[in-house]
Amino acid sequence: RHWLEAxxxxxxxxxxxxxxxxxxxxxxxxxxGWRRVLLCTCVRAERWWRLTTVRELGMPALAGLESExxxxxxxxxxxRPLTRASWLGATTKHGLRDRVxxxxxxxxxxxxxxxxxxxWSRLGPQTDLHSLDVAAVAAAAAAGSVKTLKFVACxxxxxxxxxxxxxxxxxxxxxxGGDEGPSTDFVAxxxxxxxPGDARLAVAFGGAGGGYLNEHNDWKVVSIxxxxxxxxxxxxxxxxxxxxxxxxxxxxxxxxxxxxPRGDSESAEGAVFVVGGHTLDCSESLATVDVLDVASWTWxxxxxxxxxxxxxxxxxxxSAFFCRCDGLGYLVVVGGGTGNILHGFGQGIQEFDDxxxxxxxTKEWHGPVxxxxxxxxxxxxxxxxxxxxxxxxxxxxPTADLALLDGVAVVKAALGRAVPPHxxxxxxxxxxxxxxxxxxxxxxxxxxxxxxxxxxYGGWRFGPHFSDLCLADLRSPxxxxxxxxxxxxxxxxxxxxxxxxxxxxxxxxxxxxxxxxxxxxATMDDDAAADNLVTLHINTDAGIHELRVPxxxxxxMVADGLLGLANPDDDAAAADG
Length: 577
Known about the structure:
Elements: H1 2-6, H2 9-16, H3 21-30, H4 32-38, H5 43-56, H6 71-79, E1 86-91, E2 104-107, E3 113-117, E4 120-121, E5 124-125, E6 129-133, H7 134-143, E7 152-153, E8 155-157, E9 168-171, H8 184-191, E10 200-205, E11 219-225, E12 230-238, E13 256-260, E14 271-275, E15 278-279, E16 284-285, E17 289-293, E18 298-300, E19 305-306, E20 319-325, E21 328-334, E22 337-338, E23 350-351, E24 354-359, E25 364-370, E26 380-384, E27 388-392, E28 402-406, H9 407-414, E29 425-427, E30 443-446, E31 453-457, E32 469-473, H10 483-489, H11 496-502, H12 526-531, E33 533-540, E34 543-550, H13 551-559, H14 571-575
Parallel strand pairs: 8-12, 19-25
Antiparallel strand pairs: 1-32, 2-3, 3-6, 4-5, 6-7, 9-10, 10-11, 11-12, 13-14, 14-17, 15-16, 17-18, 20-21, 21-24, 22-23, 24-25, 26-27, 27-28, 28-29, 30-31, 31-32, 33-34
Helix pairs in contact: 3-4, 3-11, 5-6
């Protein structure tokens, strides 16, 4: 232990290139000398924590954020179990007024803006888009006041999709920094430009009129730019009065439409999976799955099958999100119900408290998985990092409870693996003070991994619509809130022992680590591995110590100039290994 402490900082940083983030936190908790290196805010240390966060937590969209600091704290916060939250306040002067009928709220692929689309305002169903600067949300949270938060209208262009309540707008990227959206060349062709900039695509689909009546099947593709704060409706899609598209999709409302990236779908540019919804003036809840191939913009209808001992039951007002388990992507569908809730929660009204899993490769259902806590219809499910999601509101008597759904655990349970029920859906510990009213048909978004914050807006419960925008802090009260401030100032005190205690063995799932980064040494037998080691004699203040390292680590140290030869005349011998 003593000689490990005596190794120079440069050598320690070189060694860290071959250590995973979880192990780095553990090492820092027991070796003070290494802790100082891990907490260092130098360029090299920050780069290591940034790349470790991107690689191990599956967030490639964060790779370009080289100017940000505090990556070590960001990594720890993302792998630490989320158990608590606190509401910071609410405002009604946010630029959206009151809206219901499930306006769609989501974070842009680069984490610069929070967008809010559609919903039902005083003027009826809308197809407009507003945005909120994420930096402004961070400033409001730091100040402890949400009064400054205000959405601004995005510049729009083109002919929008037909209006409809509870209409979906599906961003064609994996949330929480995953991106994996259609290629830049494909986006450029869709927009008819050589350089689309940061524009990304989204698909609007379906919806209904007032009272859950008059569902339609119109859909259209729109581009969204975070940097320009604009939206442009393309010519790709179908409107009832247009003749350039002839397929007859089932008209539906209160469905889900989820993007599945290439590699987990049959499309070279990804696909949109539309599940359930109601049709025929809410007299029928659908169990069908229709798939939009993004590469060709063509639909396949009623593609799903299976369901084990029970078939997937038709529903609407449910939620769905994409997550990965053991390196494979799945669609997790949660809750929902049947019947028209405007007629009261009496005969013919049913609420589901289960979850189902759809394999997008085989189009087979797996489930059901019984959830320990009921998830009411028309709740919101906001994706969070590492296959988790925050669930808020919904049901006949919606509460203000906030819960964390573990999508990976749901997938494992649906595939027949033993998972304790409490690991599927875990209520967060939230103080009673400052809680907003329970609601349904509202909008919500989780700002992780960029900020540990949660937004919810609008909706209704029994009578009038809500017009408040509410902000919650997802950091535990005993978190080190000064961590990021300390990084910006060049350092700060950190309790790594407390951090390590909260990162359990499963904190970083094996399926979250990119298997492609494994090197060939991992498959060597013991003899081959021994032959691949190089013995170093490290001269420290405590004496000369022997250290055996893999040959590739040794070569990296030599290339970086971190090792000095005992006899410069032995260069040739050293080169021979």
